[in-house]
Amino acid sequence: MEVSIVSVHGAKQLATIVADPAMTIGELKNEIRQKKGHLQPERQELRLEPRSKGLDDKVTLEQIDIKNGSQLFLKDLGPQVAWKTVFLAEYAGPLFVYLWVYTRPWLLYGDTKETEKPLVVDVAVACWSTHYLKRILETLFVHRFSHATMPLRHLYRNCAYYWIFALYVAYHINHPLYTAPSEKQVYASLAFWLFCETGNFSIHWLLRNLRPAGTKERRIPKPTGNPFTTLFNVVSCPNYTYEAGSWIAFSIMTQCLPALLFTLAGFYQMTVWALGKHRNYKKEFKDYPRNRKSIVPFVL
Asked: How far is the C-alpha of 198 from the C-alpha of 154, rounded, in Å?
């Protein structure tokens, strides 16, 4: 049978594919690439209608009632970049920018030789560097991505967010006129930061083992013998809960308003992601635990 591939913009005919009813959407995308070389499968989104949702790659044409002469609408998602590359660019930037300000303060503030550096400044750079080094190593060796790529245009937006905030936070904490909080506040916050960072890694490790390598398989995440994973009893995305906790700790430790603004911006975005994942879990798994919230235990 023949299937017409039409652009979602203006209903322009892009290609006609000779297909078998048992062909999957993923296989159809490969056929489209044979006719339109610039349209790699990763940048294609096929739809039943111009404004409907994208079709899953595993769905067959027969399952969505595609017959001879039927149309499918294609949205070009634009040039793509690997998720691993995105993460590495996002996380290497803040690490470089913060260390640049910390090790070369004279570039921003002039001569600072006579200024005594508070202990919290050294603690803050250690926490910041450890956090982003952990993220880079997790990207390389822990994370398994359900999607191979994302639109290239998002890379610039994401990097700008992380890199500019890094400069904003580093500028204030390393400033010669920075006023440090008490050591008790610093050490108490540091302890909570270490707790949350350990919890965040524990959840990432559990999620890695939940998805077999090379697959997009999804299962219900459940606590293991690791006590940090017990947070799965009350929230769907404890990795975001721990992440938010570590940035709250960092903000209290440094008593820095830009750090708090970065925390609030991050928490908002993580909440959006967590709510979406929570909805998907409940939709996909009929036996999904009803007592779980998305990110904040018993609240949200």
From this structure: 29
Q: Give the helix/strand (H/E) hosting 108.
A: helix 106-109
Closest among 113, 117, 114 to 125, alpha carbons compared: 117
- Beta strands per DSSP E along 19-170: 44-47, 71-76, 80-82, 149-151
Q: Which residues of 253-288 are buried (b: 16+ CB within 10 A; e: fewer)?
A: bbbbebbbebbeebbeebbeebbeebeebeeeeeee
Count CB neighbours of 58 within 10 A: 10
Cα separation, 143 vs 241, in Å, equals 18
Tens-binned pLDDT, residue by residue, of the chain (300 aa) = 888 898 888 778 888 888 888 889 988 999 898 888 888 888 889 998 888 888 888 888 989 888 888 889 999 888 889 888 999 999 999 999 999 999 998 888 887 776 788 999 999 999 999 999 999 999 999 988 766 788 888 899 999 999 999 999 999 999 999 999 999 999 999 999 999 999 999 999 999 988 776 666 788 999 999 999 999 999 999 999 999 999 999 999 999 999 999 999 999 999 999 999 999 999 999 999 999 999 999 999
Helix axes 119-141, 183-210, angle to 10 degrees: 0
Measure the CA–CA gap between 300 and 296, rounded to whole angstroms: 5
DSSP assignment letter at 139? H
The overall pTM is greater than 0.70: yes
Element (H, E) at 254: helix 238-254
